[in-house]
Amino acid sequence: MGKRGGKLFDLTTPENEKKNVAKDHAEIAEQLKALAEAKWKEINEHARPIGELKKAR
After folding, report:
1. Which residues, other chains included, contact 20 with Cβ-Cβ below 8 Å and sequence gap of 6+?
2. 8-17, 26-35, 45-54: which range is least confident on average?
3. Closest CA to 5 of 25, 24, 18, 22
4. What's the whole-model pTM score?
């Protein structure tokens, strides 16, 4: 699961909230990781430096 290792938790009960189930559900964890990476890429592509605004038309 990448450099930091992924974590995935079952939030259906308080006991399950403490157990990382990423290894038990590796395919789901990988899909979620890919989705998150794609979103971060999209965010970074549209980011602008702080304080810089494009001139309105």
Report:
1. 7, 8, 9
2. 45-54
3. 22
4. 0.65
